[in-house]
Design brief:
There is one protein chain. The protein is of the alpha/beta class. It has two domains: 199 residues, Alanine racemase (TIM Barrel, Alpha-Beta Barrel); 122 residues, Lyase, Ornithine Decarboxylase, Chain A, domain 1, CATH 2.40.37.10. Helices cover 27% and strands 23% of the residues. The protein has ten helices and 18 strands. The strands form four sheets. Strands 7, 8, 11, 12, 13, 14, 15 and 16 form an eight-stranded antiparallel beta sheet that branches. Helix 5 packs parallel to helix 6. The longest helix is centred in the middle third of the chain and has 21 residues. The chain is elongated and about 75 Å long. The relative contact order is 0.09.
Length: 339
């Protein structure tokens, strides 16, 4: 549920996940855990990210599990526990190179310290894959590093929860599933390999739409947008949509995106500005004011995915959906009916 539910809205996404059978929810920050608790969500939460001394009490107040990998942080958690009992997951860095210690003996020492603290419970062992979306051989190497750590922590704490798999590993590496899996992007129907979601049986949950705010004629030589990066070479008609980079339509899409209007595909032309984009309807094109305009989603036989947008600007679908800002209103539907 991190990053505002990958741009979809954390609280509605959390409720949908629970309705779909999820028994745990994971976030990256203490603030994200607090938001879910404030909304009335009572299921087990795991904060996967680093926590400062200021953030740690927020996570504990949300009754969230936390992640440790060194003695210092274990001591910090014990000091902040305040008479409660905090569930701690110990992380071994098997190849991602970010959080966690690379040294198994250090991670085991951290786990032993957790067990020795009356206010702490050794709840889990975890790692994270660096290449599950592209290099299965390195995934296998990471698993080979992780398994001895798992065996030792299970000896220390029988019954602890072991987890490693992100979305790509859930789909591609059954040996990584252990006791639970941490689906992220796949929960939202997006392809963790950044290819075609439908090829993996995934159906995107999100559509991003705007509407036609104005239509005007343009003569040959007329321009649109900052810097005159589009100049008409013929008479045409231009539609303006009130959505821009402040909403998540990246400036990199300048002269480099299609928009679906009236079951047809039209090119975005000119510079993407903070609040508006412009679409070339062509000399014979027509669009009524307030007509829907689809940026991600389907309109008739035409469709455009987050993966399509990502390919346009050499990024990944994660960045496309996470970049949809809070300014964009979210409307939620269940089985096609507003929820």
């Amino acid at each position: 549920m991190k990053a505002n539910g990958y741009g979809h809205g954390a609280v509605p996404a959390a409720r949908a996940a629970l309705a779909g059978g999820a028994s745990w929810l994971a976030v990256a920050t203490a603030g994200e855990a607090a938001e879910l608790r404030a909304s009335g969500i009572g299921t087990r939460l795991l904060v996967m990210g680093a926590l400062s001394l200021e953030e740690l009490p927020v996570a504990l107040a949300a009754d969230a599990d936390v992640v440790a990998w060194d003695e210092r942080f274990v001591s910090d958690v014990a000091a902040a526990a305040g008479g409660g009992r905090v569930r701690v997951h110990v992380k071994l860095d098997t190849g991602m190179g970010r959080l966690g210690t690379r040294v198994m003996s250090e991670a085991i020492t951290a786990a032993e310290l957790v067990r020795a603290e009356p206010s702490l419970e050794l709840a889990g062992a975890m790692t994270h894959f660096a290449t599950a979306d592209e290099d299965p051989e390195f995934v296998s190497a990471q698993l080979a590093r992780f398994e001895p750590f798992v065996a030792e922590l299970r000896r220390l704490q029988p019954g602890l929860v072991v987890h490693a798999a992100n979305s790509a590993a859930v789909l591609g590496e059954p040996a990584s599933h252990f006791d639970l899996v941490r689906c992220g992007i796949a929960l939202y129907g997006l392809d963790p390999m950044n290819e075609r979601a439908e090829d993996r049986g995934l159906e995107p949950a999100l559509e991003l739409t705007s509407y036609v705010a104005a239509v005007k004629a343009a003569a040959s030589g007329d321009s649109a947008g900052y810097g005159r990066r589009f100049v008409a070479d013929r008479e045409t008609r231009l539609a303006t949509l009130p959505i821009g980079y402040a909403d998540g339509v990246r400036r990199a899409f300048t002269n480099n995106l299609d928009v679906l209007i009236g079951e047809r595909r039209y090119p975005l032309v000119g510079t993407v500005s903070m609040d508006n984009i412009t679409v070339d309807l062509g000399p014979d094109g027509s669009a009524e004011r307030e007509a829907p305009a689809t940026i991600i989603g389907s309109d008739g036989k035409e469709s455009q995915s987050a993966e399509d947008l990502a390919a346009r600007i050499a990024t990944i679908n994660y960045e496309i959906v996470c970049g949809i800002s809070s300014r964009v209103p979210r409307t939620y539907h269940r089985d096609g009916v507003p929820a």
